[in-house]
């Protein structure tokens, strides 16, 4: 192997390693951030649950998440990419996925895609309601079958 080919191979190996190192940092930041966000959501839901009735405590958590994600995305402070992703996707994403939904909706509107944004908004809300209701019905059905099976024993 010629020395120039050797040097090119070494440079390629270094850039590949650097890319893998950054990816490892991103994955680790998302994992740690996800843990922090999920625990924060749980803790806040419990704390607020004693003050505010249930659906409104969750609504409050979602509103905080929306505020935090949009603030963080538009905050001009510079952070390394892996920290930005760890905070936005990990911490805030685990704190509330509702905030991500709203960010997508706002992106459509900011790009002039009002119709698409409105359709996305409506089908998400309606779809979530339908999926939730179907999940509820299925759980009721499974629960009643389990009760019947227990009575037969």
Give a description of the structure.
This protein has 153 residues and is mostly helical. Helices cover 88% and strands 0% of the residues. It is built from five helices and no strands. The chain has helices spanning 3-49, 54-74, 81-95, 98-110, 114-152. Helix 2 runs antiparallel to helix 3. The longest helix has 47 residues, at 3-49. The protein is extended and about 80 Å long. It starts with a helix and ends with a helix. The mean pLDDT is 84.
Mind sketching the topology for me?
Elements: H1 3-49, H2 54-74, H3 81-95, H4 98-110, H5 114-152
In brief, what are we looking at here?
With 153 residues, the protein is mainly alpha-helical.
Separation, N- and C-terminal Cα atoms: 76 Å
Share of helical residues: over 70%
Rounded radius of gyration (Å):
23 Å
Low-pLDDT regions: none
Strand element count = 0
List the main descriptive attributes of the protein structure presented here:
153 residues, 88% helix, extended
């Amino acid at each position: 192997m010629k020395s120039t080919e050797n040097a090119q191979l070494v440079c390629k190996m270094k850039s590949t390693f650097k890319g893998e190192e950054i990816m490892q940092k991103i994955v680790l930041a998302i994992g740690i951030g996800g843990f922090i966000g999920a625990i924060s959501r749980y803790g806040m839901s419990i704390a607020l649950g004693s003050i505010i009735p249930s659906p409104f405590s969750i609504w409050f958590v979602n509103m905080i998440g929306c505020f935090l994600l949009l603030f963080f995305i538009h905050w001009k402070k510079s952070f390394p990419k892996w920290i930005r992703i760890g905070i936005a996707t990990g911490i805030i994403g685990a704190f509330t996925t509702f905030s991500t939904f709203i960010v997508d909706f706002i992106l459509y509107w900011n790009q002039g895609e009002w119709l698409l944004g409105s359709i996305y908004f409506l089908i998400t809300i309606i779809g979530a309601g339908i999926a939730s209701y179907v999940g509820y019905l299925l759980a009721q059905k499974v629960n009643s079958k389990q009760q019947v099976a227990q009575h037969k024993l």
